[in-house]
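Lecture 7 notes: from sequence to structure.
We start with the chain below.
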Amino acid sequence: MNAEETPDFSVLAKDGLARLGKLSMDRHALDTPTFMPVGTRGAVRTLTALDLEELEADIILGNTYHLMLRPGVEVIQEKGGLHQFTGWNRLILTDSGGYQIFSLEPDVDDKGATFKSTYDGSLHRLTPQDAVDIQCGLGADIQMALDVCPPLPSEKSVIETAVVRTKLWAEDARKHFLFKRDKEGFSNAQFGIVQGGLDLTLRRISGEQIVEIGFDGYAIGGLSVGESRSEMIEPMDASIRTLPADRPRYFMGLGDPAGLVEAVNLGVDMFDCVWPTRLARHGTALTNTGRINLGAARYARSDDPIDLSFPQSPASHWSRGYLRHLLAVGEPAAARLLTLHNLAWLFDMMRRMRESISTGTFQEFRKEILDIWG
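Predicted structure tokens for the same chain:
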């Protein structure tokens, strides 16, 4: 891949709108639909890069906001980039930092945002060009353009302003990224983000604007932020309808099984979320019969593994009773074992979903998941 080429994305099979694809980059190739664990500060909590390799993860997400503040992009750059710093040799996608910044209610204008650090209260300025430079310094394989992510619910005028600024920032980010890619000769990718809240017209407008700018892939932002799944479906579909078929589509911040199959049903390829790892740290396991709270007293004497129908779980060696004991006494091993299990289970669900698309049985698989998780 030379500096002018985009990542190679191919749709290998379809079942309705659901797509089986392959995304190939210089460092690694992955099959889609795919799920990206979130490594907020350079690690998925309780796990190492070696753990993720053993789980056969293809790609993880790094949080630009936190990494630019601690330890700082200069430190990571000195260490050879995020891959070398963390010991992770497969793909890394970094968000733009926008979501965390906007949760801090910064001062925003057409050129960028000024915000306070959650660590020490220091003031920082972030522009679309800064976000590109920071993510290039981190060495992300895929970086996101800085966008304006308004909370839901918001007044329509707030959503409209977010759409306008997201377009302006996307133009600045893309121009700067292409300049750097041409000058420095790297082959990494940049995705644009579609906003619009729950408004179908604004979703269409934003999608058309971002696609016209031209990115290597496209993300659906500003959803899965507290609205119900039924509220999410139509705006998601409105966004997807504007996106080109020959580019990967990424839904930001979605990780529950029912939400995943509904998004794949409409043609989404990539996902990330803290949901499965956060549940694990609070004692909840994902299973083929639904989620279970291992902190419950009824599991105190259970000799069963977490999920009898998923014996390949990295935590299947230990009983529910033992895991409950670890949780009860605050032993950190509990969070680690449940995190390993939840990610392994979710990766297996994605594998089964890809298989169902390839065999034309996706709707049966979707019904199975929705019957349990819907």
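Points to note: Residues 280-373 form one domain. The mean pLDDT is 96.
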